[in-house]
Fold:
Amino acid sequence: MLKINNVTIKLKSFHLKIDLTIKPKSITAVIGPSGSGKSTLFDMIGGFNQLDSGSIIWENNDIGNLEPAQRPITVLFQDNNLFPHLNTYQNVALGLTTKLKNHEKFKYKIDNALEKVDMLEHSNKYPSELSGGQKGRTALARALVRKKPLLLLDEPFSALGPGLRREMLNLVKEISHKNKLTVMIVTHDPAELADVCQDVIVVAENTATGPYHLQELLKNPPKSLSDYL
Amino acid sequence: MKKLIFSLFFLLSTSSFCLSEVNTLKVYTYDSFVSDWGPGPSIEKAFENICDCDLQLIGAGDGAALLAKLLLEGELTEADVVLGLDTNLISRAKETGLFAKHSKTLDLNLPIAWDDDTFIPFDWGYFAFVYNAKNISSVPNNFKELTNQTNLRIVIQDPRSSTPGLGLLMWIKAAYGDESNKIWKGLTPNILTVTKGWSEAYGLFMDGEADLVLSYTTSPAYHIIAENDSSKKAAIFDEGHYMQIEVAAKISNTDQTELADKFLDFMVSEKFQTIIPTTNWMYPVINLDAKLDKAFLSPIPKNKSLYFDPITAQETRKEALDEWLEILSK
Amino acid sequence: MVRNIKQINFSNILGWVSLTLLTLVTFGTLAVVYVKSHNNFTLTPADFKIIKFTTYQALISATMSSVLGIFLARALTRQSFIGKSILIVILGAPFILPVVVAILGLISVFGRNGLLNNTLEIFGFENISIYGLHGIIIANIFFNLPLVSRLLLHGWNSIPAEQLRLAESLGFNKQDIFFLIELPMLRTRLPGIFAVVFLICVSSFSIALTLGGGPKSTTIELAIYQAFRYDFDLSKAANLAMVQFILCFMITIIVIWTQKTQSFQVSFDRVIVKWTRSNNNLIDWIIISLSSIFLIIPLLVILMEGIFSLHLIDASILVSLGRSILVAFGAVIICLFITFSLGSVIVTSNIRSKVRWLMESSAYFIIASSPLVIGTGFFIFLFPIINPIKIVFPMTALINAIMAVPFSLRIILPAMQKINQDYGKLSESIGLRGYEKIFNLTIPRMKREIGFSVGLISALSIGDLGVVTLFSSPQSGTLPLTIYRLMGSYQMDAAKAAAFLLLISCFIIFLLTDRLAHSNVKD
Structure:
């Protein structure tokens, strides 16, 4: 269980209050108008922003003061999840070691992860040779080898077409279920996530609240969200 | 923007208009001749007093570059008279066909007989290394001693652009003949830098950058007379000193023939010649007797005077230059 | 429709005229040089030493500029401080700074009686010399360190923020960040930057002219000048010009080959959270302060000393400034004409791609040609017909214009392409064509780019001390040449006053064009 208790973040001309609880092994959507602070929320959980007050509790431990790498979290960004000068295999290997030369002992794990996302045959390709979907799969493979229980997706498939996006979301659903991951996904289109998740968090008017039930929210949105939807 | 450009055109055109009201004589010469402390200002004033003309002394680099400049401009040159070549360049200058013969009978006081039909001398001197007696304890007495004292830093001029630079090539050739390459090899470590002209080199010496500078036996007179400073001295070498005779001539297709002749006459007159010693710091080409300041030591004895006639100098120049370039570029 | 075809032909003709002009000036003069040197191409041992020295000084200068540039760019990326944006603007200044002005400043600092040596003397150290190899390298670094730093700063800024966060969440340490993020960036950018700087150093004539010159420190370009001005040996000049062209051509091929991902646009001051958390603060600050001192002090010295010598500015200096401005004006007109003519053809959609490639690459290949080689070719060609001395200013304006084409095309072309994309069909449909299109659409939409180009071309031209040194008469030089002559006759104070004037003129021209560029831009 991820609990975010009364956290406030102050940036230059922006502040955000967060108080919410995410169920373990669930997939939760994060929605809100652009500029409302969805990325700030992820930055806070991921450890890229300082907390001004409050705490972040994961499985009864306060992770609010840990370095990003020490947190039980993997973040997938909108873009640039892969290093362009490393091939697929090396990009995944980075999830286990930064010493790319002695990756031999991890070969089994890496190949295994690549196989799960159907990327094994593209091991030696560089990001510039991959399609958008393949890049997303590679990033997912790295998330798998890292074995962090919490996976944050910051619109990672927004550049893909609707069909491919649905396919990727299904892949996320499948592997998060198999690997017992807790997943949060930022999206612009909550309807699209209807098959994948039930819970939704709303970031609007400088607060992040939830979770709400996705279907109900869509039927009956609060005022702050109705304009946006 | 338009206004700006128009006013600039105006500025440029007016500057040439006001000059064209009287006859103008353009004399190409070396830079130090026209500098504020050189002979230029006094000579311009003196000549304009008698000629009813505008004398323009135009500095075009050092003496040797002056000749290349004329070659470059060819028949189109604006110059009416060229002043500041020396005997080492006379043959090369005549080959260009740009210079007019003079028809003057000259009464000169030079160490050698003057019989050139084109060029007229206006001053002369001996090349020498000048040093500051306050800074140097053991003064070299010849080139070999100079090469042995590797701590002494010297500044010389480029023989391709400067007449003193070329003079040094001739000096060493005249003193050592085929052994000259040994002297140059020995000198190379002493050479701090090679400048394009005499002014730069002397400026560096005066700034204390170098211990010795290639100049003339008459240069110390400047410091004695103008600055009351007797610490600057010329090192007298026992191999002898190479003589430089600086010359001038008329450009053959000048449209100011009369004025040019008048200038050349003026050049060997007493008025011009009295200005030369204390501004260009060289010996006059006519006998000034008591009018020559005592600070000008008597010229070194004739048997220590080294000199190539123009034809020999021209024959020696190419070979000496190649040798110099090769040794100094190492 | 008939009219339409006519218009396209008209713009095509102008494009071909410009292309011919470019080709004649660059390759035409080269052909003349080749013919002249063809029958007796000999290089003396001294010539080989010159070639060796040229590449050697360029190699050292480019290496040192690159290494220092890496440290400076890295420090500027990580640290954030008041005045950083000003410092970054100053890093752009040497590109348009007249070389003679900078040289005078460097002499004031590093010369025998300069600030540095006087300080060294107090502490009893050996003096360092600004003349010869040392001076040439110092000057080259002065001009190229800022260039390298700005290009690399852009490289660091172009590293996506996500990569840095990714690095953080994957637990990279400092070495990991260097090897996995910074080094790959350097590997893609540095070879191109190095090659450009090497090319600049190989062909930097003014620096060698003012600080080198002895047989030990002569570059090929300087030797071409000497063959002209010392010996008037045209075949020697032609031989050396041939060598210079071949050398520059080879480097240019390397530049273009390494330039695939290079961009000359720089985004400033995007401080990324991660970089500022660096703990190498001390080293960063030392690098930033030393570089600032090195780059700023020489200019300050010129400004200060120049102001106190302003009374030495006489009519001849003012007239030479007038000449420089006229030459710059001519260069701007010619350069914009060529740029727009080539640009119109390149952006036209219905043109064969080979033609487009030809137009673009001929413009960019100009960086391989040297003004001195072009000048040599012009001279050899014109000498039997008309004395080149007579047309020295139009010729200087033409050569300056052509040397500026690659830069101006790089500024103008993207804007032209955008206008064509956005309004091309619209203007076709309302029948806006030809001159009407240029005056009613292109120029109003491109004020900023045109203003920037005009500023750049005039600054490059007004400070140029290249081809004009070959031909000009003693009393008819441009301002940089006058400064050089004053230096040569050791009138340093007058030279500094004139340098002050040149610097201020460049600055005013930039301000004027900037105001022009920003007047009435409606968006």
Q: What stands out?
A: The first strand of chain A starts at residue 2 and ends at 11. Residues 1-72+148-229 of chain A form a domain with the Rossmann fold fold (CATH 3.40.50.300). Chain A is about 30% helix and 25% strand. Residues 90 and 110 of chain A are 9 Å apart (CA to CA).
